[in-house]
Design a protein that fits this description.
By secondary structure, the protein is an alpha+beta fold. The protein is 44% helix and 15% strand. The protein contains seven helices and four strands; from the N terminus they run H-H-H-E-E-H-H-H-E-E-H. Strands 1-2 form a two-stranded antiparallel ribbon. A two-stranded antiparallel ribbon has the order 3-4. Strand 1 and strand 2 form a beta hairpin. The mean pLDDT is 88. One of its GO terms (molecular function) is endonuclease activity. It comes from Phocicoccus pinnipedialis. Pfam families: HNH. This is HNH nuclease domain-containing protein.
Length: 165
């Protein structure tokens, strides 16, 4: 909004300079001139929210108060912070950190301890090593969500690697 207002003011100034009316008209009849040429820029008031954070101790003896004006600068900083958080949440590091033992066990139980490619299971092969695989690999934008995870034996997981089948 602030940039829009500045752009309107600059455009008005540029039109006035290009038109180049005599100085006395600009000094004494500026408003009438702008009205005649159709340059009516309304007064725009930008009102920003103000956030007040206040802490009062349990006993009421100590307190702190912080006031943040949500203006153009704080909006930009907040937008950059949110963009960084979104970028981190989709990062490989974040996705790998979501692969908890609990999630791994859930996926294996859901898939009945059976490889989803070759159908080898712990019932048939008690010593088989089962791994959790991302159907759409993290390197290709896949997320560590239940719908994107499957159980594979170690051989099938190595064959699949980072491919999308």
């Amino acid at each position: 909004m602030e940039n829009t207002i500045k752009n309107l003011e600059l455009r008005q100034q540029q039109i006035t300079e290009d038109f180049n009316p005599p100085k006395f008209i600009l000094k004494y009849y500026y408003d009438e001139l702008m009205e005649k040429i159709g340059m009516d820029i309304p007064e725009i008031d930008i009102s920003y929210s103000q956030y007040i954070f206040e802490y009062v101790s349990a006993g009421g003896h100590s307190s702190q108060r912080t006031i943040i004006d949500f203006n153009g600068e704080t909006v930009e900083v907040t937008a950059a912070y949110i963009a960084e958080k979104i970028k981190y949440n989709k990062s490989a590091k974040r996705q790998r950190s979501l692969m908890t033992n609990k999630l791994r066990m859930f996926i294996k139980e859901r898939d009945a301890y059976t490889c989803q490619m070759c159908s080898a299971s712990t019932d048939d092969h008690p010593l088989i090593l089962l791994e959790i695989d991302h159907i759409i690999p993290i390197s290709k934008g896949g997320l560590s969500e239940k719908e994107n995870l499957q159980t594979l034996c170690w051989k099938c997981n190595r064959k699949k690697a980072d491919k999308i089948l």
